[in-house]
């Protein structure tokens, strides 16, 4: 009798533990936010032609045949599902149609890294890639909490790793295509982070009216080796401002912003993202052109749409998009445009004309 009761208690504990895991997974699914570069698989019984895998472009939008362009970056998966459901109904499909959206990993997806680091960016995936190698590229700052490094898979599964750079055998997992590595700050309650070439890098408290200049002042001022003409502000992983300190520039900050002051050895850059072999930063120099930047990122992949390449540029605080067809540039029909510091080059995925995913 005692053994039977103990067995029932063990089974109950295991069932509760399994239920807890299911509830955790469900909660994680509702919290994962879609980011540029993610891949979404859409499945619906409304129309087989609508099903497929679609990439979120650098600007946060995606184009789904039969549904049209949508801005989805920053939304949770349930929110994406709601938006798609509304668009299907608006397009004339029945309200009773079922729809499911999930994140998926593609073999060509790079591993991205950001957070309390000197360098945010991406590295092409290769077999055997480990967290320690990404950390070496990212250069976590003293403000980074290496006991809580977050790794989120392309499917939205999140794990927290205690990483010790001095002990490569501990907390150094293998990474997968599409993984996102986030080096969190020690003080999670801080509202703004100032990293890189300042005297006291780390978190500072957000106050209304805070700007790049005042935040740097709170961080002890600029370091002697700061790249003063190339200060950037990132918001939710996206570049939103480029500040030239020497020209008297300034920019307002919001809660959660990250101010990055590169050191002189880092230099200015442009960002090439999307369907290229080495997604990430390309060193900027005067006269750098669009095709040169794409070659610097290893060139386009076989499924890249080189007829719809975009340059994203902030002009007077507004995001402007410029479209280019590389075939027309190669033939001399149109000139090869010169890039500016802070430009983002987006190489989108090729959408089959038959609407397939």
Give the CATH superfamily of the largest domain: Outer membrane lipoprotein wza domain like
Count the E strands: 20
CATH architecture of the largest domain: Roll
Strand neighbour order, sheet with most strands: 7-6-10-8-9
Order of helices and strands, N to C? HEEEEHEEEHEEEEEHEEEEEHEEHE
> Which structural category fits the helices and strands?
alpha+beta
| CA-based gyration radius | 23 Å
Mean pLDDT: 79
Task: Provide the CATH topology of the largest domain.
Answer: Outer membrane lipoprotein wza fold like
Roughly what percent helix?
Answer: 10-25%
Low-confidence stretches: 9-30
So what's the overall shape? globular
How many domains? The number is: 4
CATH class of the largest domain: Alpha Beta
Short key terms for the protein model shown above:
6 helices, Outer membrane lipoprotein wza fold like, 357 residues, wza like fold, 20% helix, 29% strand, five-stranded mixed sheet, 4 domains, alpha+beta
In words, what does this structure look like?
There is one protein chain. The protein is α+β, with helices and mostly antiparallel strands and 357 residues long. The chain has four domains: 39-104, wza like fold, CATH 3.30.1950; 110-188, Outer membrane lipoprotein wza domain like (Outer membrane lipoprotein wza fold like); 192-265, Outer membrane lipoprotein wza fold like (Roll), CATH 3.10.560.10; 269-347, Outer membrane lipoprotein wza domain like (Outer membrane lipoprotein wza fold like, Roll), CATH 3.10.560.10. Helix content is 20%, strand content 29%. It is built from six helices and 20 strands. The strands form five sheets. A five-stranded mixed β-sheet has the order 7-6-10-8-9, covered by helices on one side. A five-stranded mixed β-sheet has the order 12-11-15-13-14, covered by helices on one side. Strands 17-16-20-18-19 form a five-stranded mixed β-sheet. The termini are far apart. The model is unreliable at 9-30 (pLDDT under 50).
